[in-house]
Amino acid sequence: MQAVKKKVDVRYLTKTAVLSVLAFLIMFIEVPMWFAPPFLKVDFSDIPALIGAFALGPMTGVVIELLKNILHIALKGTTTVGVGELANFIVGSIFVCIASIMYYKNKNFKSAIIGLILGTIAMTLVAAIANYLFLLPFYAKFYGTPIESFVEMGAAVNKYVSDVKSLVIFAITPFNILKGIMISVVTIPLYKRISPLLHK
Questions:
Q1: Residue 106 in domain
Q2: Residue 36 domain-assigned?
Q3: Is residue 50 part of a domain?
């Protein structure tokens, strides 16, 4: 019995580790959005975390989100004393957790879609509040630049941006909605193909 449990644990740890490394590597692929300032780029590193959460449980997704950011700091370094990675972890974990919790209630296509929609909404709301109250002021202070410089970057590509609030509403919010949609669209067909391997 103990040998079987140990075997299961090793398999679980191996799957989680592989998905975490994949998530870390995918972080290097970034896609800029035409309506958002240059510092906002979509990366698809939440996909392995979502797949892991759907197959192995919500907490697995959170662990993958944590490990990918630890790997990012350890191997690539950080330009924000870890704050950017912490924000990535929190926002990604909320997205993954809510999506997979909904899916686990009734494991079917409809539940997955509902979960991904709710996860996208939650991620977008948290990202908007965090950027407005904490992240943008932090980055302005950390880089020794006025917060208006971020507004100017947004205004240069988005005519609706004129201050911090409009930057959040018309750039950061649609950015995260689109990010959630893009990640969801890629995750659904991928999960269908990969899940048999993860359930072995």
A1: yes
A2: no
A3: yes
Per-run averaged pLDDT (10 residues), the chain, 200 residues: 58 93 94 93 95 94 96 89 90 96 90 96 97 93 92 96 97 97 95 79
- The predicted pLDDT at position 200 comes to 66
Which residue type does 33 have? M
Read off the DSSP letter of residue 105.
H
- Which residue do the tokens 């939650």 mark? 122
**SS3 of residue 185 by DSSP:** helix
**In which element (H, E) is residue 31 found?**
strand 30-32
> What is the biggest distance separating any 2 CA atoms in the chain, rounded to whole angstroms?
64
Task: Render pLDDT for 75-94 as a digit per residue (tens, 0 to 9).
Answer: 988 888 888 899 999 999 99
- What domain range is 68 assigned to? 2-29+43-198
Tokens representing residue 10 in the block: 């090793």
Query: Strand, coil or helix: what is 42?
Result: strand
The CATH number linked to 111 is 1.10.1760.20
Residue 4: predicted pLDDT:
45
d(C-alpha 116, C-alpha 103), whole Å = 9
Strand partners, 30: 43
Task: State the Cα–Cα distance between residues 99 and 186, nearest whole angstrom.
Answer: 14
DSSP per residue over 117-176, as a string? Answer: HHHHHHHHHHHHHHIIIIIHHHHHHHTT--THHHHHHHHHH-TT--SHHHHIIIIIHHHH
